[in-house]
């Protein structure tokens, strides 16, 4: 903005114009043009097209049949038992995964933030699992969660004396989902680093002031750390909810939705309908319902944010 | 700790002395518990990885011994050779590398251009466009999955690496790509404005300012973007799964899934876990190498976007 008053730019401003824009403005637009093009072709276009497709029956080969809202009616009428099951499973996952990740990474970041010796080494160790996400992690945990795998070895060694035996994680409808959730906690590193950076940004004088007011450890956490960390907590929980509603890789590789659909997630259901049965219309309807569910939770979080998120320097 | 002990020497009467002693014990105890917890978390983080490496070196049939055998006996390095010999692992490695490198190149070049536009130039609708850009970060990718498949099918790009590369050459135009524009823009905003103003007075064009001044100064952000992008594409599974079918372009992620699928189908006793873990290690090694050689960019990058949430 300071640039606009500059004499050099004003000369340019008078000289060349395109569609009533100054050359300066045109240039700015040219810089963001690649994004705008990509956005229209790869995001906005597909976004609206998928809504259109969701109103039809289309199997890619052959004609497109207009259905109106029939696909949605079928989804919402609980006619598709598997979809209902998938929504339930996904919600189950999100409800445990998101708060779990927040609490665990908050605790770890808190531990690291206490002038620990060798903080860099710990930080590296904790972050390492996060960069290995994807298929390799899934294959690894498929192995760890075997009935005689690593996790059960530990459970049997430490809890065996109390009569607790490790379950057949992936083979049981009760334990498959907890198994996947435990696995998801292994990759809390990114959130942990964001929190750690947040912790380090809290001014020390706030803690000193709290100490003078007689606050103990819990008092400082409750009245200084938590309020100051709310922007990070908000950010990670919004992105966490959006991401975890679309959980897919682990389930496809490890359980393929089983046993008995116990880990069938919405995206996995969509994949099976859209990309193995090629029922594009119905798959798009699933995508839109999930989109609306995610949108609902995102909006709820944004609305609630004004009540609990504290932005320094601007009181909401 | 030092402060507390100093105070305890100065303490005059017995009761304060006792109180400071108790405080001291509490602090030491707290520290010990803290270290124990940190150590525990470190073990949990590393153990599965160690287990993976250990298993990849075990002889077939010795993977499930109880109690767990951490150092394999015998150590079978040949597993890695077998993994490469019995499959086209080298080819899949090359495919993955090519896709990841080309997509990353596109991401860094185009995202930095767009980021420069948003960080330094003024134009009509900039604010609105930037808000749209940010909101694509929150748009679940699932809604565009089917139509982008249709789009690439129409273009004849299915079963070629193009769908995995080309969108990333449009600075944040690909799904989730806005993250990189955002990261680089945040960094560029911190650079002093006087630099471009001085260059402008000297008659430099905006492109020159971008190329000669902003890019060299934004190296940390570019490095962070390149690393995140590479690892993202290296690990990506959903997109290759949908856009690639044939063996010719198979990526490591697809191969691992395929391997697990064919092996585990034969019952757990017949699954060659050692080979599967060897292939997994092969997939992890490049990521680990990048991580350890560029760690500071990583941590800064994550921290930068996290702070930007404020």
Written overview of the protein:
The complex is a heterodimer of chains A (316) and B (310). The N terminus of chain A is likely disordered. Helix content of chain A is 69%, strand content 3%. In chain A, strand 1 and strand 2 form a beta hairpin. Chain A has 316 residues and is mostly helical. Chain A has two domains: 54 residues, no CATH class; 231 residues, Orthogonal Bundle (MetI-like fold). In chain B, helix 9 runs antiparallel to helix 10. Helices cover 73% and strands 0% of the residues of chain B. With 310 residues, chain B is mainly alpha-helical. About 2% of the residues of chain B have low confidence. The two termini of chain B are 34 Å apart.
Using brief descriptors, characterize the structure shown.
heterodimer, A: 316 residues, mainly alpha, MetI-like fold, 2 domains, two-stranded antiparallel sheet, globular, disordered N terminus, B: 310 residues, 15 helices, flat
